[in-house]
Write a structure and sequence with these properties.
41 strands
Length: about 550
């Protein structure tokens, strides 16, 4: 390999006799200087097959020689900039020493290599370096002065990719270091069958050349290539037909290494075959911002045109209880496993909507018919329209001054004397849904004996007008928690008081869960609180510590169906 090089000055000429810039150097003066074709930032890291050019420009040495080690060779100087392989330029029988002023050295083996420069002078000389201490000559027994310095090079072996491919736990291909498959031999490659929706696992086993990463260019079909990075990757196949598996590239990059990439063809043909699994609804049924409904299926869809009559979209909202016509059906433009339904009438985020499919002519690319399903609930689109202050809603800000215990250690909240004996409510930073803080509720060991309220005083800063809202929060109930409810309620509110209970009976323990309730404000918020309360009468009196965390509240306006 040809090494990209630039020349720079490593050492400066130094004479034992002082001189000005205008004075000429006289032969009676001595000094040491050399050039190298290795840039400073290369830090003496090279690769097998690279060369380095060295030029000794020392002034009036009596003797001079370069000394190299085994695995290194002196080269003739008749190569050109277009040459990248230097084996033919090795000087036969040159040995390990050269008295030439200019030498080129080829490294053919990995490991640590040295190049030693040895000069003798009549007078004392010194080498000044910005990176190291000054190197002074030493007087030898024969009365001459010697400069003896050694450069150490870390020579990396060439990258030599190796990898394996697995179908499940079965190894279907192994490429060893040194094997170089050719695309021209594709007809002789093994053929691996993969069901549409199935996967293959690719494992990098490269060690030669000290690689830093692997990159995979894997074919999903005749025209689709997926670029993946990692020592082990898994690819889902979604196309029928036969196609070459792709390529693997071993990569070495970063500081202090010779940057290199070596690619290998993966000598294997992938044959996509129809899946033996049913083609079914796969969840993620939701409304998007433009009121289009979408859902996932277990494979890529061949087409859905003209299938709208086979879908039933049912909408409930107060007295409104009827089906809405599907105007058209389509496949998502960026994900062929997603079907979209465009409705003939507007929908509202306060609606409760279900979708059912009665069966029809929708098929996967591998010709499987989509099974009927439903009714399935739709997750409505609410956007990022939280009316609450983000830090207050997420318990992000600690209390600034005041009584930390009675203030639950959180800005904009208050517990009062209820917290004096037992820290029922307190802001913590060691467990949260997101951000840096959350609110912890923790009862004494004898359980819940009274109503305990966390006052949400900074709700007054929320721009809440009269209307209906979705009040949500994330809760985490510790395993062993037996709480059955938590209440949200207004205080200092000029309108009709709001009180709503969130049922905790069947909420999973040991994970964050989102709880939402619709609440109606019949007056504008002009200074109200929105509190949390754990009611003693509504919860069991079990003699256990009841621990719960609350985080990431939201308060979103609901669209009213006319």
């Amino acid at each position: 390999m040809k090494y990209t090089i630039k020349t720079f000055l490593i050492a400066a000429i130094v004479s034992i006799i002082g001189c000005t810039q205008d004075e000429d150097f006289d032969p009676k003066y001595s000094g040491i200087e050399w050039y190298s074709t290795l840039e400073r930032e290369d830090s003496l890291f090279l690769q097998v097959g690279d060369k380095i050019d060295l030029l000794d420009l020392s002034l009036n040495p009596i003797d001079h020689k370069w000394i190299i080690g085994e695995g290194s060779f002196f080269l003739r100087q008749d190569f050109t900039e277009n040459d990248s392989i230097y084996d033919n330029f090795i000087i036969a029988d040159a040995g390990l020493e050269s008295t030439s002023k200019e030498v080129s050295v080829l490294f053919t083996e990995p490991g640590k290599h040295t190049i030693r420069l040895f000069n003798t002078f009549k007078d004392s000389v010194a080498w000044f370096s910005e990176e190291t201490d000054t190197l002074f000559s030493k007087k030898a027994a024969n009365g001459l002065w010697e400069i003896d310095t050694t450069f150490v090079f870390d020579i990396f072996d060439k990258l030599n990719p190796a990898f394996k491919v697995f179908n499940g736990d079965t190894e279907v291909l192994s490429l060893s270091a040194g094997e170089i498959p050719l695309l021209a031999d594709k007809a002789s490659w093994p053929v691996v069958e993969v069901e549409v929706g199935g996967t293959l696992r690719f494992v990098d086993l490269t060690t030669t050349g000290r690689p830093t990463s692997a990159r995979w260019g894997l074919n999903i079909g005749p025209e689709v290539v997926e670029s993946l990075q990692g020592s082990e990757v898994e690819l889902v196949y979604t196309k029928l037909g036969e196609f070459a598996a792709g390529t693997m590239t071993s990569v070495r990059n970063g500081s202090g290494v010779p940057v290199s990439e070596v690619a290998r063809v993966i000598p294997m043909v992938v044959k996509g075959i129809p899946s033996s699994q049913p083609f079914v609804f796969n969840g993620n049924l939701r409304e998007d911002e433009s009121e289009v409904l979408s859902f996932s299926v277990t494979g890529e869809v061949a087409g859905v045109s003209g299938e709208q009559s086979n879908f039933t979209v049912h909408v409930k909202n107060g007295s409104f209880d009827q089906a809405i016509e599907v105007q058209s059906t389509r496949v998502n433009s960026s994900d062929a496993t997603v079907i979209e339904l465009v409705l003939a009438e507007p929908i509202y985020n306060s609606d409760t909507i279900t979708v059912a499919y009665a069966g029809g002519n929708i098929k996967s690319l591998d010709t499987r018919p989509l099974k009927d399903f439903g009714p399935q609930p739709v997750t409505m689109y609410f956007g990022n329209n939280n009316l609450l202050e983000a830090d207050w809603a997420g318990f992000e800000t600690p209390q600034n001054g005041g009584n930390q215990t009675r203030g639950a250690a959180a800005d904009g909240y208050w517990v009062g004397r209820d917290n004096d004996d037992n820290l029922w409510w307190t802001r913590v930073e060691d467990f949260q849904m997101s951000g840096v803080g959350s609110m912890k509720f923790e009862s004494p060991a004898d359980g819940i004996s009274k109503d305990v309220t966390l006052q949400g005083s900074n709700f007054k800063n929320s721009a809440v007008s009269a209307g209906t809202y979705l009040a949500c929060m994330h809760v985490f109930l510790e395993v062993g928690n037996t709480l059955t409810s938590i209440t949200r309620l207004t205080a200092k509110y000029s309108g009709t008081p709001v009180e709503v209970k969130y049922d905790l009976t069947n909420v999973p323990r040991g994970e964050w869960v989102s709880l939402c309730k619709a609440v109606t404000f019949d007056a504008d918020n002009t200074g109200a609180r929105f509190d949390f309360r754990v009611d003693g009468a509504d919860n069991p009196s079990d003699a256990v510590v009841q621990k719960m965390y609350i985080d990431d509240q939201s308060f979103i306006a609901l669209e009213v169906r006319p």
